[in-house]
TrEMBL record:
Signal peptide: none annotated. The lineage of its organism: Bacteria, Pseudomonadati, Bacteroidota, Cytophagia, Cytophagales. This is Glycosyltransferase RgtA/B/C/D-like domain-containing protein. The keyword Ion transport does not apply. It comes from Nibribacter koreensis. Keywords: Membrane, Transmembrane, Transmembrane helix. The chain crosses the membrane at residues 84-108, 120-140, 146-175, 196-215, 264-281, 286-305, 311-329, 350-370.
Length: 517
């Protein structure tokens, strides 16, 4: 018979699954969600997929899963079904096994991260949480189930950069215990030298493959640390607080916003880091890896990638994972401890209540996010695609941006003609000339040539409003999709008739600079 804990977890997982299934149809997919789907759908072999996704900057796990799904169906709803399964999976594992209070677990699962950011939005983070929570669950069996635990670390490393980092430090911790760097390790079981060496090799190969699959070919041709301004450092210094306290501003485009000012969030972030550090100070083998992860995130968000709340959230998830793991290590009594050890123990006793307060804030933010996503469209891609479906089939559909317009391609179920590259496309392909994109009037000229060739109007979809009143040939703005969308992107749909282009003078322009190679 299932235990009370299992029954409780099953009951609330079922409730979560029903809520997620209710809200998902109200969520319009955006290009970060549809891009992996299109890559999987239009890759005709796994090697083709690996080649096509080389500019994504993510490991292969989520794309591989979608590749398998798209071998059976091209229905876009299958993307949401896949997301639903992984989200329900991480919620059940967390509710069933996490050593936190039921209040905290329920607030987290039905809060901003659990139900909205990593639940409704179909990205590769739900599968990361599933593998992360499995790693934490099987942590006390890391020696008795040696290869199984290493497999979970490798699997987690294949989810995204943040899974790779966590698997890296937990692997180092595992092997430091296995090779007796620490005098005593709980749940210890003897391992032969051969098993230890093979384990290091497997983990190392798994992490190396994850790193290789994330490394984009374009990286050597660009600055590896593009952000070198104080602004990004100050913004990065707010992210710890924002990752715990996810309450956004009260407007439609609230996504990735914060209710507090930077000048307030920086000191709050410092206080929070000090509190977390103090709570782990007694357990040195966990203190150092966690602080290393925090330091990397700080540097990454300061100099490499500004990120969004789904990225910054890993301050919170790393803390959660390490508190989970810490329950498997004995904690000493306050008697006979030094001053700093007593401070550490006191901070440890505060943290459950602190985390509960943050979980309540996340729950409130989740209600706000769900309410807005239910009432307003998330992204205009679906609306634009529905409008395009009403146009005559003879009209050729062209786009200027193969990233943001990929959502239209996904909802239409077919590739679109990318004017700058001159070919049909459905997903992003790196263009080293993208920093020197043709001007909008030049794109209209090209669309006009296509209209002449097709002897039918051409539809041009742009992210930007073009001053067509100054264009030589009559161009009609059919629809503009802007305004009440949670994601602040817009689409403008233009019709270019099949008319002869007027003769134009050649105008010299400043050189665009050296083209990247």
């Amino acid at each position: 018979m299932p235990s009370q804990k299992t029954k409780f977890a099953l009951a609330f997982t079922l409730l979560y699954a029903c809520l997620l299934a209710f809200f998902m149809p109200y969520h319009e997919l955006w290009f970060d969600e549809t891009e992996p789907w299109l890559l999987a759908l239009y890759s005709y072999s796994f090697t083709d997929l690996v080649s096509n996704k080389r500019f994504e900057g993510h490991p292969d796990l989520w794309y591989s899963l979608l590749f398998v799904v798209t071998r059976f169906t091209d229905n876009l709803n299958a993307l949401k079904v896949t997301q639903w399964i992984t989200a329900v999976g991480f919620v059940f594992v967390f509710l069933r096994n996490a050593p936190f209070s039921w209040a905290f677990k329920l607030l987290f699962c039905f809060g901003y991260y659990g139900l909205f950011e990593y639940g409704i939005i179909s990205r590769l983070y739900a599968i990361e949480l599933l593998t992360l929570f499995l790693v934490c669950t099987y942590y006390p069996k890391r020696f008795t189930h040696w290869y199984g635990y290493i497999f979970l670390l490798i699997l987690n490393a294949q989810t995204n950069l943040f899974g790779f980092l966590l698997s890296g430090v937990l692997g180092l911790l595992l092997f430091s215990e296995a090779f007796k760097v620490w005098k005593e390790s709980p749940q210890w079981a003897p391992l032969s030298m051969a098993h230890r060496i093979i384990g290091v090799g497997l983990w190392g190969l798994g992490c190396l493959y994850s790193f290789w699959s994330m490394l984009r070919p374009v990286e050597p041709h660009r600055e590896f640390f593009p952000f070198q301004e104080a602004y990004y450092v100050f913004q990065s210094a707010t992210r710890v607080w924002q990752s715990f306290f996810t309450v956004p501003q009260s407007h439609i485009t609230f996504w990735n916003s914060s209710i507090l000012k930077t000048s307030v969030e920086i000191p709050l972030s410092i206080i929070l880091v000090l509190l977390i550090a103090a709570a782990f100070y007694q357990t040195k083998r966990l203190f150092f890896p966690l602080m290393l992860l925090f330091a990397f995130l700080m540097l990454f968000f300061s100099f490499k990638f500004e990120g969004a709340i789904r990225h910054h959230a890993h301050y919170f998830f790393y803390t959660l994972a390490f508190f989970w793991i810490r329950t498997f290590y004995p904690q000493g009594s306050a008697n006979g401890l030094g001053y700093w050890q007593r401070i550490s123990q006191k901070a440890s006793t505060w943290m459950p209540n602190v985390l509960l307060i943050f979980a309540f804030a996340q729950f409130v933010a989740g209600i706000k996010a769900l309410q807005v996503d239910w009432k307003y469209p998330f992204y205009p891609g679906k609306d634009a695609a529905e409008f395009v479906k009403t146009l005559p089939a003879s009209y050729m559909i062209t786009i200027e941006d193969d990233v943001t317009a990929s959502t239209i391609s996904a909802y239409l179920g077919r590739p679109l003609f990318h004017l700058p590259n001159g070919n049909y496309t459905s997903f992003f392909r790196l263009n080293l000339l993208e920093g020197h994109a043709p001007r909008k009037f030049v794109l209209l000229d090209w669309a006009g040539v296509l209209a002449q060739q097709q002897k039918a109007p051409v539809i041009f979809i742009s992210r930007f409003e073009i001053p067509i009143q100054w264009y030589a040939t009559p161009v009609k703005l059919l629809r503009a999709f802007k305004g009440d969308y949670m994601n602040p992107y817009s689409y403008y749909v233009y019709e270019i008739p099949p008319m002869a282009l007027p003769k134009k003078q050649i105008t010299a322009e400043p050189p665009v600079g050296e083209v990247e190679k």
